[in-house]
Amino acid sequence: MQMRITLNMNYINFVRPLCLGGLAGVAVSLPGAAWAQAAPPLPTVTVHAERDGAPLPLADSVQAERAKLAKVSGGTNLAEPQKEARLATLRDALDYQPGIVMQDFFGGTDQPRLGIRGSGIQSNPVNRGVLLLQDGLPLNEADGSFIIGLIEPRNAAYVSALRGANARSPGATTLGGELDFVSLTGADERGRVRLEGGSFGRRGAQAAVGGVGERLDGRVSVSSDRYDGYRHHSDSRRDALQANVGFQGDGGFENRTYLNWTDLAFHIPNVVPKDRIHSDPRGVMGDGNTPQDRLLNVYNRDPRRDATQLRLANRSRWGSDALRQEVGVYWQDTDDLFNNMTSHTVTHSRTAGAQWQASGRPAGSDGALGWRTALSWADSAMERDLYATNPANGTQMQRFGSYGLGAQNLQALAAADWRLAPQWTLLGSLQWSRLSRDAQSRSTGAQLDQDWSFATPKLGVNWAATSTMRVWANLSRSHEAPTFWEIVSATVAPNSPATAQAELVRLKMQRATTIEIGGAGRWGEGANALHWTAAVYRSVLADELISTTDANGIKVGTYNYAGGTRHQGVELGLSGSQRVGVGALDYRASWTYSDFRFRGGEYAGKQIAGVPRQLINAEVLYRVGAWRFGPNVRWMPVSTPTDHANTAGAEQDAYALLGLKLEWRDGPLAVYLQADNLTDRRYASAYVIRNQATAAQPGYLQGLGRSFTAGLSYQF
Which of 277, 264, 292, 196 has the alpha carbon at shortest distance from 231? Predict the structure, then answer.
C-alpha cells in the first residue's frame, strides 16, 4: 500500500467551534496543485509506506481515474478540489471546468444551480437532470431528485464528471450525465485543520484525522460553515460529519464502509425586480413600501430551507483483470423543509439501493476486447405534506396536501470495447431501465401511478491520432423521468393562502438523441505543455420538461413542451504552465457555449431560458518559490433570456467579474487571500424562469458584491 501525505492549508479567522460531539477531524490534500506540474517545483513532504504492493481498498487514485476517463468516447472532467486554496462551496470545487455551468443563488452554503448540457436546468431550485454519486453510488433519491447543498466538497479527493449520455453508471440515463465525488481515505493524510473567514460573516472550519494499518485504513472529518449573507435574509449554515473505513482481505478482496451526516439550513432572500439589482443590490422584497413589497415581504413570509440527511454505504470489490466484480449498497434518510414564500413542503424520504458490476477481458483477446455489465436497484418511500404559509409570520397554516410517494428503479447495463486497430477503439453499450413513480393523496384518495420501460443505446469510437492527442465521436440516447417535485404541484396565491390547492400531474418522459465529436491532448512536453479538451454536441429532445414561475417568482408547475427542442453547444478547456523569468505562469480557462432553442410550437426559434449562452472562466497565476498570485475572471459576455418568449428588456444582463488570488505554501502550512468581484459590479447571478416575463416582475437574484476571504490549512 502507498500512503501519501502532501501538506496543505487554507483558513483564517475565528470560526465557531465545531459541533458534532467532539470528533476531531481532518481535511485533505492530494498532490500540491495543477501548478505543481511546472518548474520550479514547490516544496512538499511525501511519505511512502509500502505493503506488498497492494492498493488501498476501494480508493482509486487520480491517475487511475484519469486513465479510465481517457477510454470514454466523449466529454469528461476530472477536478481535484484539494488543489484549490479556498474550498467552501461547490463553485470552488468545480470552477474552470468546461461544460459544467454553476450559477450562484445566494453565495453561501445554499442551492447553486448546476447545469450540464441544459439537463434539469428548468427546475427551480435545480434538483434533477444529473446523477450525483459518492464513491460510485447514487446520492439522488430514486425519483431522480437531490438537494445540492448537502454536498461537502472538502471531503472529495477528486470529482469525476462524464458529461451528457457518456455516463457509465447503470443508473445514469439523463442528458446531464453524472458527477462522482470520490472520498478522501485514511492514507491521504494523518490529519488536517482548515480555517477560513471573510466578508459578509463568512466563517468555516474543518478538522480531519486519518490513519492506515496493515489491513485497515480510516478517516473521519467534521466541518462547520456559517455565512451571514451579502443580501438581507440570506444567512446559511452547514454542519457535516463524514467517515470511511477500508479493509483489505485475502485474494484481492477489498471493502469500504461510509458514513455521512449533514445538517443544512439557509434563509432565502428570494427574487426582486430588475431595477433593484443596481439600486439596492443587498435588498429584498419588504425593504420598500410598494404594493409588491407589502405582498411579498420576505421578512414576514420567512422563506427558508432546512434539510438533514444520514447516509450509510458499503462497497466490496474482488477478482482480477480477467474477471472483476463489485457490489455496493446504500441507505439514506432525509428530512427536508422548504418554504418557498407561499407554501411549506415538508418531506421525509427513505432511500435504499444496491448495485452490482462485473468486468473483464477474455484471455484469448490479448486485451483487445473488454466487457462490462451491471445491475442497479433503488427504492424511495416519501411522505410529503404541503402547508400554506402565513403571510404575516411565515409559519405553517392549513395543510392542503398530504401524499405518500414511492419511486423504484431497476436498471441493467451491458457494454463492450473493442480495439479494432492499435489506434482505434469501438465502444458500445445498451442500458435497459424500468422506472415507476407512484403517488397517492392521503387526504382525497387521488392516485397517480406511472411507469416507464426504455432502452438507451450508445455507440462511440476513440482514435489515438498521435501519442499526445485523442479524438472521439459518439451517438447516444438519453431519458429522464419527472421527479415528485414535478408530479406533485401546489398552487397558492400569495394574497389568498386559504384557497391553496394541490394536484398530481401526469407527465411524459423527456427523451433525447445526441451526437458528439471532440478530442483531448497536449501540445508541448514537460512542465510547459499545454493541455486542451474540446467537445461539440447536438441533442434533439422530445417532451422536454419545462418548469415555470408566476408573476411573483413562485413555481407554478411543469409541463412537457410539445413542439420539440434542441440543445447544442461547444465545451473548451485549456490549462498549463509557462516558465517566465525566475518563476512560471500557471493558467487555466474554460469556455462553455450553449445554444438551446425551441424547434416548433409556441416558442419556435426562441432561445430556451435558463442557461448562459456563453460562459468564460479563466485564471492566470504567477508562481515563484512558495508564492502564487494573479487575477481571474468570470465572464458572461452576452445577455441571457429569463423567459421562453425572449422578452426584450427582461434578460439577465452580461457581466464580467474580476478577482485576485494570493497563495503561500511551505511544507505543512498554506495560507491564502482571495478577492472576488473587485470592481463591485452589480449584476444578477441567477433568475427564475418564466414563459413570459417583464423586468418589473420579481425574478432576479442579485450577485455578491466585492468580498474578501482569507484562510489557512495545516496538515500534520
Answer: 277
10 Å CB burial of residue 114 (0-12, 13-18, 19+) is buried
φ, ψ of residue 175 to 5 degrees: the values are -65, -30
Rounded to the nearest angstrom, the gap between the alpha carbon of residue 420 and the centroid of all alpha carbons in its chain is 36
Which contiguous run of DSSP H or E holds residue 177? strand 177-183
Q: Answer whether the bond into residue 494 is a cis peptide, omega within 30°.
A: no
- Mean pLDDT value of segment 257-279: 96
Q: Are 12 and 711 in contact (CB under 8 A)?
A: yes
**What one-letter code names the amino acid at 578?**
Q
Report residue 441: phi and psi, to 5°: -80, 125
Q: Do the Cβ atoms of 427 and 461 come closer than 8 Å?
A: yes
Q: Which residue do the cell numbers 420538461 mark?
A: 545
CB contact at 8 A, 230 and 210: no
What are the tens digits of pLDDT across the range 20-65?
A: 333 333 333 333 333 333 334 444 443 433 344 445 788 788 999 9
For residue range 458-513, what is the model confidence (pLDDT) as tens digits? 999 999 999 999 999 999 999 999 999 999 999 999 999 999 999 999 999 999 99
Q: How far is CA 515 from each of CA 26, 460, 537, rounded to the nearest angstrom?
A: 43, 10, 6
> Distance between CA atoms of 693 and 309, rounded to whole angstroms?
36
Predicted local distance difference test score (pLDDT) of residue 55: 55
Reply yes or no: is the peptide bond before residue 125 cis, omega within 30 of 0: yes
Name the nearest CA neighbour of 357 among 451, 426, 431, 251: 431
Phi-psi region of 22 (alpha: psi -120 to 50; beta: other; left: phi over 0): left
Q: Which of 3, 6, 29 is nearest to 206 (CA)?
A: 29
State the pairing for strand pair 530-542/396-421.
unpaired
The answer to whether residues 576 and 619 touch, using CB atoms and an 8 Å cutoff, is no
Torsional class of 543: left (φ above 0), alpha (ψ -120 to 50), beta (otherwise): left
CA distance 701 to 50: 53
Please give the pLDDT value at position 42: 41
